[in-house]
Write a structure and sequence with these properties.
With 288 residues, the chain is mainly α. The chain contains 12 helices and no strands. α1 (3-21) packs antiparallel against α8 and α10 (247-258) packs antiparallel against α11. Bound molecules: fe (ii) ion (FE2) (2 copies).
């Protein structure tokens, strides 16, 4: 058995075991008095406009930002990740059934994560998620562009896998940092939010391993021109992911609907966040 086949067998075994014993988490006891994430994960914290909020508003901003991160993960899990992994699984069904089984396990787990994140967000903010799955994000033009590229250019498959890997590395790093922040300072973060990410982390660690196997395989077969093109597109994609200009400002707008007295500071807060070149909260999560 080669090294990758050994890794795949272990992933498949762990995934099946996990599926048998995993219970559906109960998020009926979310504590509204505790923050969801360390302040450094958020955007406004890295600007002087953060001091325009009082302690109650800072707590609420933190919680809304935590919901927005869950929502971003849901968008990845239903969008780019699902599309790419589903296509790869179908392509390998005959030639590599072990890999196809692992990819099927990953799809099942991503659906489970999506349901878990949505359940958490709906329980905490029912008015925002009452009859829809999104509150802070919109259909991503980038995501659409990437999917269209995939459809037209089979040589760009490695780019899409790199994109999936970045998203999964990010969501894994996020969950890992969150769990370890709470371990270092017990009681500092809301326990249900931590539990949600501890469960997410359990599966995502396997997914990142699986993505690496896939990328090694695809890069072996690419020609130098395709590899150069993929590297450039990857850098573009990474900059887009780190850009704070999209869903972050919607969190601020939502906060202002709850605290209308903040309306006079809205323009300053939005300007401060938009001035951030790269998202410092994301950079903090990725730099470990
Ligand atoms: Fe996931
Ligand atoms: Fe994943």
């Amino acid at each position: 058995m080669n090294a990758d086949a050994d890794v795949l067998s272990k992933i498949k075994h762990a995934s099946e075991q996990d599926r048998q014993c995993r219970v559906v988490p109960d998020f009926s006891d979310i504590d509204p008095g505790l923050p969801f994430v360390p302040e450094v994960f958020t955007q406004l914290y890295h600007t002087s406009a953060y001091d325009l909020l009082n302690p109650e508003q800072k707590l609420r901003y933190n919680q809304l930002f935590g919901l927005r991160s869950n929502e971003l993960f849901m968008v990845f899990e239903k969008g780019v990740t699902r599309q790419v992994i589903h296509q790869l699984k179908n392509a390998r069904q005959e030639s590599d059934p072990l890999l196809a089984d692992c990819l099927e396990g990953m799809l099942v787990e991503e659906s489970r994560h999506h349901a878990m994140f949505l359940d958490f967000n709906r329980r905490f903010l029912p008015e925002g998620y009452s009859n829809k799955g999104r509150c802070f994000t919109r259909d991503s033009r980038l995501e659409m562009g990437v999917l269209l590229t995939r459809a037209k250019r089979p040589g760009l498959q490695p780019l899409l896998l790199w994109a999936v890997l970045v998203l999964e590395e990010f969501s894994t790093a996020y969950s890992r940092k969150l769990v370890s922040a709470e371990t270092k300072l017990p009681g500092s973060l809301e326990p249900s939010y931590r539990r949600l990410h501890a469960l997410h982390l359990q599966d995502e660690q396997r997914h990142v391993q699986l993505d690496s196997v896939l990328i090694r395989e695809l890069m072996k077969n690419g020609n130098p021109l395709q590899r150069g093109m993929n590297a450039q597109l990857f850098r573009f994609f990474f900059r887009q992911v780190l850009n704070p200009r999209h869903s972050g400002p919607r969190v601020i707008r939502y906060l202002v609907t709850e605290y209308p007295e903040l309306n006079r500071h809205l323009a300053d807060m939005l300007r401060a966040v938009r001035k951030l070149g790269m998202d410092p909260g994301l950079q903090n999560i990725m730099n470990d």
